[in-house]
Write a structure and sequence with these properties.
The protein has helices at 9-22, 27-34, 38-46, 53-63, 67-71. With 82 residues, it is mostly helical. The chain is elongated and about 45 Å long.
Length: 82
């Protein structure tokens, strides 16, 4: 049986960091846009916590990007199925 790839949580958190910087959003501003606490956002970006789908949905809306574009990062580096 083929080994299934693990989700690339590192790529997801790096994308959050990249988008936040690109949009010049402070943690406080993103917290205001998402309704999440500053601490939750810091923990997501630093990999201390992974967050729920609801949390990432709120982050995507706060960043103004589709949720799918963030979730695509979980497959970053995976080979396509053959």
């Amino acid at each position: 049986m083929p080994r299934r790839p693990e989700p690339n949580h590192e790529a997801l958190r790096h994308e959050l960091s990249r988008l936040r910087a690109e949009k010049r959003l402070t943690y406080d501003k993103l917290a205001e846009l998402t309704g999440l606490s500053r601490t939750v956002l810091i923990n997501l970006e630093h990999g201390t916590t992974r967050g729920s789908l609801d949390t990432w949905h709120r982050v995507a809306h706060g960043l103004g990007v589709p949720l799918g574009s963030l979730m695509d990062q979980l497959c970053h580096g995976h080979r396509p199925p053959s």
